[in-house]
Design goal:
The protein is mainly β. It is 2% helix and 43% strand.
Length: 582
């Protein structure tokens, strides 16, 4: 399945794949200009002066514009020590300030960390981080990062090293982020590990053309995030392993546009906390009220989070738009019970696609859990090709899909419970409001379409099919729509054989209320429809019994005529205890 996201002249094409497969992303701004991530094996810089081939050969990353890729400056040759004790901040910062735009800067592995109080990357930095840069205990730099870059462009960080925030228990002795780019244009980060920041291991704000590829984030007190109006920012092929607080593992936060998280493993959000922390989220709130738009969450594996696997919410009341959630595998989430939770929860969104995902085994014993939930602030949503099974662990009232949204089109979803003791009560609850349709879905569970104006067509349903619910002032009507001169009705089967048809007879509507009479008719053992046993004629509401009448009950004939005088064909009169039909 392919998707195209477009925003402000950018065109983003994504191709769905299994989570373990390589992901390819192509962007175009103007013909011949690469503005997003090409093949993750090679990052290509923007047009302009380029250095000679990178030090890693053909598969390396081209240096920042103007950088001599044959010149590597080792911080150990310029005063840094990397012994886990010495403050290396000044030495490393001096190398970065001097050699950005001129050479690659190398922070090599030494077996011990480089202790710093915060370093800043200038424009055109090309940094190879193979050692560990660690925040000095007791340092407080607010929202700034152990490694920061502000109002810059063309920054590359690569290697197999680590940025260590040095606050695993969030004890307050270190107040900082890990990696904190702010207002950066064109940032590439690959291979490194981010760990144990007091706040965010990764906090990208107000930036554009950003790619994090193949990184690892461990712990951290708050969400890894693209935030504050960032655009064209991508997290690809990375591992995000938990947060220590009630916060997302990864989040698009406040006005983020044309961005995505693709083919990542996200797990253990909110591990060890009492709050429900989602895996991947889209969020706007009072602190960052601008809605997000054109966000792709695709091909991720999300599991064992205290909250749901994927959420898209806006408590500030704005509307997110153009959200695609596709080909993700979510399981064992919603481990901390919160009323109304779901493995995929969406509100305040217009233009939503949830497709080809798998949601399973989520839930906790205290509250009911849904696989997918859309509230009434969502509209124009497509839910297609999802597999939802065994949700609501620890209870018996789980729901596959619950929606109160308008204009929901659900098709080709498969919802089931194959456990010895079922944890799911309904496959579908609600069903959507005005303009909604459920077509071609398959389930082994009862359904409860409780909303009005919902079209239900060609679904394979099982158990009790309920339209409406107790209370309320609206009528609950199930419409079965047929074409002129064709039957519209309900067909009953047992043991795979047709048995009864209840509905219109297919007689042409010819005016004066003629045609489309209501009939009850049986099928024979060869599945051939027989003549109607009973007909209610639409023209005059006459009830016609088209065969003999048998009764084993007492019949009161007191008010029947005692002669045929004045009667017409089909009328009934009595002669003593004998019934006669004219």
């Amino acid at each position: 399945m392919s998707y195209v996201l477009k925003y402000a002249g950018y065109s983003t094409t994504t191709t769905a794949a299994e989570p373990a497969e390589q992901y390819r992303l192509a962007y175009s701004d103007y013909p011949g200009t690469a503005v997003g991530p090409p093949d993750p094996a090679r990052w290509i810089g923007p047009p302009g002066p380029m250095g000679p081939p990178g030090i890693d050969g053909e598969d390396g990353i081209d240096g920042a514009p103007g950088v001599d890729s044959n010149s590597v400056i080792n911080v150990l040759d310029h005063g840094a020590v990397g012994d886990g004790v010495t403050d290396d901040t000044a030495a490393i910062q001096a190398v970065l300030n001097t050699y950005a735009s001129r050479a690659i800067v190398l922070i090599p592995a030494t077996g011990s960390p480089y202790m710093v109080s915060g370093i800043t990357l200038p424009s055109n930095t090309d940094l190879i981080l193979n050692g560990t840069v660690k925040m000095i205990s007791g340092t407080s730099i607010g929202g700034a990062g152990v490694v920061a870059s502000t109002n810059t462009s063309n920054v590359i960080i690569r290697g197999y090293g680590m940025i260590d925030g040095n606050d695993p228990g969030r004890l307050g002795n270190v107040i900082s982020a890990g990696l904190a780019p702010s207002n950066v244009t064109r940032l590439r980060v690959s291979g490194i590990t981010l760990k144990d920041a007091h706040h965010w291991n990764m906090n990208v704000t107000g930036s554009s053309d950003v790619v994090f590829n193949g990184i690892t984030s461990i712990g951290g007190g708050a969400a890894n995030e693209f935030a504050a109006g960032s655009t064209n920012c991508w997290l690809v092929d990375s591992l995000i392993d938990g947060t220590t607080l009630r916060d997302y593992s990864f989040c698009f936060y406040g006005g983020v546009t044309n961005s995505g998280a693709v083919n990542n493993v996200v797990r253990n959000a909110g591990a060890g906390t009492t709050g429900a922390a989602p895996g991947i989220g889209i969020l706007s709130d009072g602190s960052q009220p601008a809605p997000c738009r054109d966000i792709l969450i695709q091909g991720n594996i999300i599991h064992d989070c205290s909250g749901g696997g994927i959420t898209c919410i806006n408590p500030a009341g704005g509307t997110q738009t153009g959200i695609i959630i596709s080909d993700n595998r979510c399981y064992n989430n919603c481990k901390i019970p919160v009323a109304g939770n779901a493995d995929c929860y969406v509100d305040h969104t217009i233009g939503l696609t949830i497709s080809d995902n798998q949601f399973s085994k989520s839930g906790a014993a205290s509250v009911a859990i849904r696989g997918i939930y859309l509230d009434a602030t969502v509209s124009y949503a497509i839910i297609t090709g999802n597999q939802i099974f065994n949700v609501g662990q620890g209870r018996t009232d789980g729901v596959g899909i619950q929606t109160n949204a308008n204009h929901v089109h659900a098709t080709g979803n498969y919802i089931y419970d194959n456990q010895t003791t079922a944890t799911m009560q309904y496959s579908v609850a609600g069903g959507g409001g005005a303009g909604s349709a459920w077509v071609g879905n398959l389930t082994t569970l009862p359904t409860n379409f409780g909303n009005t104006d919902t079209t239900v067509n060609a679904n394979a349903l099982n158990g009790v099919f309920t339209v409406g619910g107790p209370g309320g002032s609206a009528d609950h009507i199930m419409a079965i729509v047929g074409a002129q001169s064709h039957r519209a009705g309900l067909q009953y089967q047992t043991q795979g054989q047709l048995r009864w048809l209840v509905g219109t007879d297919g007689q042409t509507d010819s005016g004066s209320e003629n045609g489309s009479n209501y009939v009850i008719a049986s099928y024979n053992d060869s599945n051939v429809l027989q003549s109607a046993a009973l007909m209610v004629r639409r023209a005059d509401n006459a009830v016609l019994l088209l065969n003999r009448v048998e009764t084993r009950a007492r019949v009161n004939m007191t008010n029947l005529p005692t002669s045929a005088t004045g009667l017409v064909a089909g009328d009934v009169w009595r002669n003593g205890a004998v019934l006669n039909i004219v």
